[in-house]
Amino acid sequence: MRLWESVGLVTPARSAGRYRLYTPDLLNMLKRIKYLRDVKRLNVPGIKQALAGSLPAKATAEGRPTPDLGEKLRRMRKKCRLTITEAAERAQISAGFLSTIELSHANPSVATIYRLAAAYGTTVLELYELPVQSSRVIQPRNRKSLETKSGVRMELLSTGTKMLESMLIRVPPGTGSDGAYMHQGEDFLYMLQGTLEIWLDEVECHVLQEGDSFWFESNRGHRWFNPTKKPTVILWVNTPPTF
Fold first, then answer.
1. At which of 58, 80, 106 does a domain end?
2. How confident is the model over 55-107, as pLDDT tens digits?
């Protein structure tokens, strides 16, 4: 693992005592690297090419930590009167990783954002700076958005709705939710561009292509991933607005 870190395949956070902190998302990355090395017999350049945009070392300006996201999550935790350790346990992540998120040293994945919102008894909508007065028309330049550590961008397409939530989700090559999550309601997807691999309860896998539509029960554990070298764009609607 130190070799993989030295060549830029993984970048674990560090504790105050300089110990490496391996999050569930990072452990999944390590498993993928091990598979590519042991089963596919790829060398380091080959592994980097196979992982493409999911490598931390390839983070671009779009993938940098969102400065105010960590502060918002810290305020939500404080409002619930939870310690870092208590909140991390509820969200099934390490206390060290939650600390790096709150300090804006790292952006959480989609799955981690959902888990933290659930741990704080709220929705991810609380993380957007929503206007006081909702609007029926939202122009592209006025969309509120969140961006994860891997560059997945979630653009809010509606505000003030009572029964649904609609998003435009942009998934760079080799990235995804970085873990499974669940919530109440139903999800509907329409593929505007690219390919998306989505798993339900780790037993049902669907590969969606441009033009496909798909729905599922939101209380099923779901994770998703763009396995191609091209970006994916999805119209994603869920009801009720738990996002």
1. 58
2. 443 333 333 444 477 888 888 899 999 998 999 888 888 888 888 888 877 77
H/E segment holding residue 191: strand 186-193
pTM: 0.64
What parts of the chain have a pLDDT lower than 50?
53, 55-67, 243
**Which of helix, strand or coil describes residue 71?**
helix
User: What CA–CA distances, in Å, run from 149 to 38, 95, 240?
Assistant: 27, 17, 26
Helix runs in 9-164, H state only: 24-38, 44-51, 67-79, 84-91, 95-102, 110-119
Domains identified in the chain, total number = 2
Tell me if 129 is assigned to some domain: no
Sign of the torsion formed by the C-alpha atoms of 199, 204, 205 and 211: negative
Residue 164 is part of which domain span?
A: 134-239
Torsional sign, CA 13, 16, 18, 20: negative
Residue 222 lies in a domain: yes
